[in-house]
Design brief:
There is one protein chain. The protein is mostly beta strands and 849 residues long. It is 2% helix and 53% strand. The strands form 8 sheets. The protein has a 24-stranded antiparallel β-barrel. Strand 10 and strand 11 form a beta hairpin. The termini are far apart.
Length: 849
């Protein structure tokens, strides 16, 4: 057979689906004691199964060790027991806090209580007794952000180790039926050999996950539980601030607050989560980065309330980016002679609620609602008096998604979001008669912003509405999938919104976007797919969602050859190619990358990812901020990511990228040195570095109409983040986080481009830039310096009830340079940035049935 025909045949053929195993659960007259020991006589009532097979590293082989699993249940909980003999490898035990992964031996169980072959709850415990949980959805997607109140314990024996899990029915969703059969999976992981054994085995070459699980039978007489769980809490905070150029506030203040989280199950299939006046001071600070691109920085969500259940609102377009809720407003614009008394703080969230679950056999619902308080700062006027300045008004956020299952393989969803503001327009300062200054600048790109003026009674914020429909289909074996989404947006009641690509979105303008993707994700060797993304210039989902840009027509293709069976020095290897093209609606090419990549896991357990990429000449229509497109020369580069054996006491990784351009260089990287000092103590050192030099970047507009000034930017950053966790017990941990970060930018070789101010948007070729001999009138260079610290003592003194003792040191990285100063990496910038030190005590008490 010709090679091409053989490759096509390999892509089209799918592996046969193995028969799904069954395990019968036994009703117990009394619950077993959860101590990790399997000496309760009630365990003899439960049939045991040892039908495990290797998933990794030898796909389909017999396990190196025998594993048995048994399941009991009563009207309150499901109980799972694992017996894990271990004679061929040492038992690896690592202590850490709950829900934090540690490289250790572990077992897990997945319960698909709805029996829909698409979703499941996951519960895991490692050999040291550390618990972590999550959920699976859409068959193959997963999230570790879901948290349930359950318990488990482990015990090391003379032949291995054992584990007992107690999973309350109140945290599960299931319909009331005389007898139930749930999707079921049990797994074991042996750290020393990186072996994973699955009870419901299916080859790694097959697509899908939950759809291949086995069945847990014999669950009789289980009824819906609709309990209410309450978690009231109190918080006390002591804060000290030191004055700087950007912050006049100083001294110490004391503040206290209280709130409550609650969870209610209106039915066994529905969960309502709510919070009143939440406080997230125990959450680790965001890692500061230097963003020299024209795309907004993406910060992951870390607040527990918004993490849980967010998967149900996940669609191809990220229409819900919960970091918008309770955000820290940007540093405001000030008039001449004004000074900022204090930097903005996160907006107070008055309350928030989420409803997730099923409303019928084939319909599910997910909603998020939140109301945030107005955000104000104090401003000192030229005469020394101080006035409040409104940054963000009282705001309501809402998102809802309805999903209709179409059999086991497909669904269609409807989603809508809304952001509305109760804006008091008379609070904005007048620049001149007939014009008020909006206090928050419009951030066009991470490096470019513009001020916005409105009529004295005009609004500075827009109400934003989004509607969308999404769809997904997977083949019965899970090897093939098709997903897509169509979205429409509209802004109302606000000013004209400028966008970095030159678009101006007026109130009432309708935006739209369509995304589609077809993918083969199963098969012995060949996987790949193709996607198309079309977004109109007026598409605006950023008020509650996240989008790197609109105004694009993008296509992408990728193909990967994977070998999942060990050969030569490899445990597995993936070789791939990716190609894409992106144009804006004016037909200007803004991206055309091609990437060759290889990802390998070696038999010594090291992982090496490498790629070589090339990007052709293109134009960046967001660099200037008004649609003027600056030429970007072709670049060639590569990336190398190396990770050492994760089972060793010291684990390291380095990820380095480098792009070479004509007379320019762009390189960045990060590392991780992880030290397992003791079984209960780990330490991570994470350095970062970045250097971008030689590309012309927009500096400012010239004095003449249509004149643009550019400079070669020398942008640099270095940082070191330290994370450490000492675990006294799985419920008592001490965590510390600190980041020292320095960044700078210096513009040189200032050049100019003169366009026709009344003509169409110009395309600026690098060769058309001419030297500029005039003065800029201001210093465009910048320096940043921060030292952020977060120390948290977490004690779960009762199941679900937690005491936090927290210390934080937080800084705003912005510093002020003099008119002739040159931006350099300067440790002294840390001392010039506004600082806040705070000590906090937070106590919560969980109440539930």
């Amino acid at each position: 057979m010709p090679p091409i025909a053989a490759a096509i045949g390999a892509v089209l053929l799918a592996a046969p689906l193995p028969p799904a195993p069954h395990l019968r659960a036994a009703r117990t007259p009394r619950p077993p004691v959860i101590d990790g020991k399997l000496d309760d006589q009630v365990w003899n009532l439960a049939p045991e199964s040892s039908a495990f097979r290797q998933k990794i590293p030898h796909d389909g082989a017999s396990p190196s060790e025998t594993t048995t699993v048994r399941v009991l249940y009563d009207d309150v909980a499901v109980y799972v027991a694992f017996d894990c003999p271990q004679t061929h490898a040492p038992i690896t035990q690592r202590l850490t806090r709950r829900d934090r992964y540690a490289e250790a031996d572990s077992v897990s169980v997945s319960l698909g209580t709805l029996g829909d072959h698409k979703s499941a709850f996951q519960f895991s415990v490692n050999a040291a007794g550390v618990l972590y949980d999550g959920i699976r959805f859409n068959d193959t997607d997963s999230s570790q952000d879901w948290d349930g109140n359950w318990d488990a314990a482990t015990h090391v024996t003379d032949h291995g180790w054992t584990a007992e899990l107690r999973i309350p029915l109140r945290i599960l969703r299931f319909p009331t039926r005389p007898e139930q059969s749930w999707d079921f999976q049990a797994s074991r992981y042996v750290s020393a050999t990186q072996e994973q054994d699955d009870w419901a085995y299916y080859p790694r070459t097959m697509g899908g996950a939950v759809s291949h699980y086995g069945r847990l039978d014999g669950l009789e007489g289980l009824e819906e539980h609709t309990p209410i769980e309450l978690l009231p809490f109190v918080v006390g905070r002591l804060r000290r601030r030191d004055p700087t150029v950007l912050q006049l506030a100083s001294g110490t203040d004391v503040r206290g607050s209280a709130g409550v989280d609650f969870r209610w199950h209106p039915t066994a299939d529905l969960t309502l989560d709510g919070t009143i006046n939440p406080d997230f001071a125990q959450v680790e600070a965001d890692q500061v980065v230097l963003n020299l691109s024209t795309a907004p920085t993406y910060y992951p969500e870390k607040r527990p309330f918004f993490l849980e259940g967010i998967d149900a609102l996940s669609t191809p377009f990220e229409l819900l980016y919960t970091r918008r809720i309770g955000r820290v407003a940007p540093i405001p614009l000030l008039r001449s002679g004004e000074q900022l008394v204090d930097v903005p703080e996160p907006a107070t969230i008055y309350g928030a609620a989420k409803l997730t679950g099923r409303i019928s056999e084939n319909w599910s619902v997910a909603t998020v609602q939140a109301v945030t308080a107005p955000s104000d700062v104090q401003v000192q006027l030229g005469d020394g008096s101080r006035v409040p300045r409104r940054l963000d008004p009282l705001t309501s956020f809402g998102a809802v998604r309805l999903k209709r299952d179409l059999g086991d393989e497909a669904h269609v969803g409807l989603m809508a979001t809304a952001v509305t503001h109760a804006e008091e327009t008379e609070r904005y300062p007048l620049l001149q008669p007939g014009a008020a200054l909006c206090p928050i600048p419009t951030q066009l790109t991470p490096l470019q912003q513009t001020r916005l003026t409105v009529a004295p009674d005009g609004r500075c914020t827009s109400d934003a509405y989004v509607g969308a429909v999404d769809w997904q289909w997977r083949s019965p074996e899970g090897d093939w999938s098709v997903i897509g989404q169509a979205v429409s947006t509209v802004l109302e009641n606000g000013p004209v919104r400028p966008v970095a690509d030159g678009t101006r979105i007026h109130p009432g303008d309708v935006g739209w976007g369509v995304y589609g993707e077809a993918r083969k994700q199963g098969g012995k060797h060949w996987v790949g797919g193709a996607s198309v993304d079309v977004e109109a210039p007026t598409l605006a989902i950023e008020d509650l969602g996240y989008n790197t840009r609109a105004d694009e027509i993008a296509t992408e293709f990728d193909l990967q050859r994977r070998d999942l069976d060990p050969f030569g020095p490899f445990l597995e290897n993936r070789l791939g190619v990716r190609y894409g093209e992106t144009y804006d609606f004016a037909g200007t090419r803004i991206s055309q990358p091609i990437t060759l990549s290889d990802s390998a896991k070696l038999k010594n357990l090291w992982v090496i990812d490498a790629n070589v990429h090339y990007r052709a000449d293109r134009f960046d229509d967001r660099e200037v901020g008004d649609g003027t497109a600056l030429e970007r020369r072709a670049r060639i580069g590569g990336e190398l990511d190396v990770e050492t054996d994760p089972t060793q006491p010291v684990v390291g990784s380095v990820d380095q990228t480098m792009d070479v351009l004509r007379n320019a260089l762009d390189t960045s990287g990060n590392g991780d040195a992880s030290f397992k000092v003791l079984p209960q103590w780990d330490l991570d050192l994470l350095p970062t570095w970045q250097w971008s030099y030689g590309e012309p970047r927009f500096v400012t507009s010239g004095r003449l109409p249509g004149q643009y000034l550019f400079g070669k930017l020398d942008g640099r950053s270095v940082g070191l983040t330290v994370r450490t966790t000492y675990t006294f017990t799985p419920r008592l941990t001490l965590q510390a986080y600190a980041q020292l970060f320095l960044a700078s930018g210096h513009y040189s070789d200032i050049s100019q481009f003169q366009s026709n101010p009344s003509g169409p948007r110009p395309l600026v070729h690098v060769t058309s830039l001419m030297p500029y001999g005039g003065a800029l009138g201001y210093n465009p260079d910048f320096e940043q310096g921060v030292l952020n610290v977060n120390v948290v003592l977490r004690w779960e003194y009762m199941l679900g009830s937690i005491l936090y003792l927290v210390y934080t040191r937080a800084q705003v990285p912005t510093t002020v340079l003099g008119p002739t100063a040159v931006g350099n990496l300067d440790l002294g910038a840390v001392g010039r940035a506004p600082t806040s030190d705070a000590a906090l005590v937070k106590v919560s008490f969980w109440w539930g049935p």
